Amino acid sequence: MKRTIMDYDLNNKKVIIRVDFNVPIKDKKILDDNRIVMALDTINYAINHNAKVILLSHLGRIKTIEDKQNNSLILVKDRLSELLNRDVLFINETRGKALEDAVSNMKAKDIILVENTRFEDLNGKLESSNDDTLARYWANLGDIFINDAFATSHRSHASNVGIASILPNGIGFLVKDELDKLNILSEPKRPYTIILGGAKVSDKINVISSLAKKADYILIGGGMAYTFLKALNNNIGASIIDNESIDFCKEMLSKYKDKIILPKDSITSKSLNGNSVCKLNEDFEDDDIGYDIGLKTIDEFKSIIDKSNTVFWNGPLGYFEIEKYSNGTKKILDILSKTDKTVIIGGGDTASAAINFGYKKSFTHISTGGGASLELLEGKELPGIKIISDK
Ligand code: AMP
């Protein structure tokens, strides 16, 4: 059992909490604040126990000066302050005198949000390569380190693993809840069904190989289905394809032919904005592009869901950002929301779809971590969790 924030006396202590505020932002608006909302329990607990709270997070990837301009955490600070209903002091640098002065002037219950940790990546990838000097600098700002950034826990960065290797440490409530809920899948009530979607097979090769052994059914939709269909010699027209994964798909289909269920039909179009039609696999023309699972596929997926007791889902079943290709993802969300089975939604796009389409409270768990939840299910140990001391 990992130590948690509750194992420490926080009174007047400077508590560095690594949160994951890597939220989608468009036109200076936060599109989905779930990751901020989910971090509130730990932050409130620390404040209620008289801690001085120093928040660290990354946002996006930082490779250029322009990335820096587009990925400041300042908008997050405003939303966080609203949600907490108290002031949050934003420090627009990741190290320096302003940060050090602000920290030394902190009183109990004060909150500081430090600028995007990945700004340090412009400086030779210091954050992402877990640079020791950077980790020591940040660790020096606090007394205790709490990892509440589940979605970053599969990475070994200075702001999580680096600081944790120096300071007394623990996990926060968000990470504890993720580990408890995802642990249900280590001994799932059967039949156990995995739904996989998203654009590319290559991103999910490890998870497909490892989950295929454990699951009773694997329902494949989204862009990745077309590489599987191609591996069975279907004409997939001009649909998205991942050529280097065809051999892998063939191997999976021959090993697990009774478990893997592929779409029978798709919502197709000649272009993203063209007219859309539902077509069976055998009716695809060379210029048809499959953008969503079709109606027969939804029915077949439903019949498997109906006989399952546990479902894990990662990856949207169509180009769900466009309304007319979101039907498959929405229908499956709706079907799952009406069952009393264990349903766990992996993070990333599937979590955003579930929340934005109104299903936030409908499932056993919606993970905040896409890559992290997949790696955990593959059986990998997450470095950000491994480094935290046991009780
Ligand atoms: P991933 O990051 O691999 O989970 O992929 C998510 C992306 O896959 C989303 O942006 C979806 O729009 C996209 N996607 C899902 N189905 C399709 C499809 N049939 N064709 C193209 N992109 C798709």
Verbal overview:
It is a single chain. The protein has 391 residues and is an alpha/beta fold. The protein is built from 15 helices and 17 strands. The strands form four sheets. The chain has a six-stranded parallel sheet with strand order 5-6-4-1-7-8, with helices on both faces. It has a six-stranded parallel sheet with strand order 11-10-9-15-16-17, with helices on both faces. Helix 1 (34-48) packs across helix 3 (74-84), helix 5 packs across helix 6 (158-164) and helix 9 (224-231) crosses helix 10. The chain starts with 13 loop residues before the first strand and ends in a 5-residue tail after the last helix. It binds adenosine monophosphate. Adenosine monophosphate binds at residues 197-200, 203, 222-223, 240, 290-291, 315-316, 318-321, 348-349.
